[in-house]
């Protein structure tokens, strides 16, 4: 009898715990969701448990985490002291992006960098390796091959630039823009002092005196040659006015394959500068610190005379992916082979899409020559 009476007594606590324990567990989950779910809107909360695995992200990971990642979220995540460093790049130029990032990391400014991906391939790759530092602003462009200077693909990419920069200013941040065929040798921010609206570099190869004027350079036949590839803009009404005018100038001259000189964003930028001369406070950066590629890579005497003053080197005045790569290698500025560990993206496989495309075009050109056609020049 005693054993029969003990059996229901021993069972009661177990059933009580099951019912009430389940209730308490559900209640705890609801409380946790109520507290932490709102925090999931924060980019930091989203990214903190992600790894930089070399394996490709799953489709659900890609779509849910990056396709809807907004410019506002991205800028908020990377901004430091109210400033964002921006580049706009497509997947074939991933090695150049990595090279640029290594040089920025050496100056301790990499956490400010926001990569505006022009295609989903680059968006996913950067955010896989470096979560939160890439955003795509639709529409996405074709990622299959590097866009050659003068092509419609090149124009489509560069013509979007001023609107991207304006959008970031409208969010309340200062913004520095760089092309990724640049290398930082020193910290450029010490040259961005004062309250000017916009800072830029000259694109001319003529040597200026070290104490040259920092105003808008004089025009040649009504045309100024300011480089749109390195710009720093403060979040001011003057800077916004300049960008709005730049957007207008680009829209007024759309790309056309029939034009003798195909347009791109830089002439439009120069026209915008001239048309806002008395409304925008501009500052021309020192030539010795921010030389064009036509000066730095082609005038050894000047380089020696200004040694130690160079801050950002631009690999322009040369056309073609492989040509830019070789020039960087020849001058000891191609960093990814030996210093990939200094990049936030780590070591990446070189992208060969552009080489394959160039080989195909050259092959087609040779066939045309053999058939009496005109050979095609590849930029």
UniProtKB/TrEMBL annotation:
Its EC number is 2.4.2.-. The chain crosses the membrane at residues 21-39. Residues 370-379 have a biased composition (Polar residues). Residues 351-379 are annotated as: Disordered. Its main location: Golgi. One of its GO terms (molecular function) is UDP-xylosyltransferase activity. GO terms for cellular component: Golgi membrane. Keywords: Cell wall biogenesis/degradation, Glycosyltransferase, Golgi apparatus, Membrane, Signal-anchor, Transferase, Transmembrane, Transmembrane helix. Coiled coil: none annotated. Residues 109-328 form the Nucleotide-diphospho-sugar transferase domain. It is a single-pass type II membrane protein. Residues 351-360 have a biased composition (Basic and acidic residues). It comes from the Eukaryota. GO terms for biological process: rhamnogalacturonan II biosynthetic process. It is an enzyme of class 2 (transferase). InterPro entries: Nucl-diP-sugar_transferase, Nucleotide-diphossugar_trans, UDP-D-xylose:L-fucose_XylT. It is found in: Golgi apparatus membrane. PANTHER family: UDP-D-XYLOSE:L-FUCOSE ALPHA-1,3-D-XYLOSYLTRANSFERASE 3, UDP-D-XYLOSE:L-FUCOSE ALPHA-1,3-D-XYLOSYLTRANSFERASE-RELATED. Belongs to the glycosyltransferase 77 family. This is Glycosyltransferase.
